[in-house]
Amino acid sequence: MTSSRRTLLPPALLVAAALCLSACGGAPEAEKTAAADSADHPVKATSCGFTSTVAAAPERAVTMNQGATEVMLALGLEDRLAGTAYLDDSVPTKWQKAYDSVKVLSKEYPDHESLLAARPDFVYASYISAFDPEVAGSPAELATLDIGSYNSPLGCGDNDLPAVSFDTVWDEIETVATVFGVPERADAIKAEQQKALGTLAKQGAGDGVDVFWFDSGDKTPLAGAGEGGPQLILDAVGATNLFSDLKGGWADVSWERVVKADPDVIVLGDASWSSADDKIALLQKDPALKQLEAVREKRFVVLPYSETTPGVRLADGAQAVADGLDALDLR
């Protein structure tokens, strides 16, 4: 497998309204929450050439792909999930309990009938492949069933992709939060990550370090290129991506070019379908690759694959790479 803010009442008015409802014996708590979440609906969510009009904050959403699931968990919306599917690796400890409370529909993509059997009112995915006919079906088809949908703008396949930046990631989180009526939670995530990235920029753990980002592949390696998650992470820590001249988030390169570049450090994404251990074994076994300085000196930085792709954990990925570089003590 290989992004409009809602108008909100001033806080004082919200507090006054809440006190009035409480004092006057207003609606039950669940009804009050639903009313608050849906106050500014309908809202529109646009991505991958389709605009979904969401009449009310969804209550039975289904997420497909780990990135989408973790955005929902980061926003504290696990109680709005009727199901989830398709992890690349493990959900982090901080969200494990929330994830365990959600029904897993399938290890990978569920079939169309299984998805509809979950009675979703919204489908959110990271990759456009989730909307294939045999899986969720197209967003237009879902709309005829009164099911809203949204796909990460960074996973639109052959559609025009936005320029990748942390702002792109935050725009996606904001859109999802707006759909579910909790925009202030997206604001909090953005503020926290901006602070963390500011600290990483000052530390400059990667200053002067040339990096080969090895995603997967054996005969032909798939490298982190200049327009995706790896580039954002390496920029955040001040390191140089040896393949930043290549377009897209990932690109096939040649081992000959890797050998010629002789990177200082090799960053490895650890995925269920391409483990870091397997990639390290390949590098250490090949007669030419084992001569690379980074391989000889075991200068590897490993992080979960889910922290290498644009999403709510990308800032965590930047921190992981910074920590890994610090541990190598190259400065």
From TrEMBL:
This protein's name: ABC transporter substrate-binding protein
Record keywords: Signal
Lineage: superkingdom: Bacteria
Endpoints of the signal sequence: 1-23
Domain Fe/B12 periplasmic-binding: 60-331
Family the entry assigns: Belongs to the bacterial solute-binding protein 8 family.
Keyword Manganese: no
Keyword Cytoplasm: no
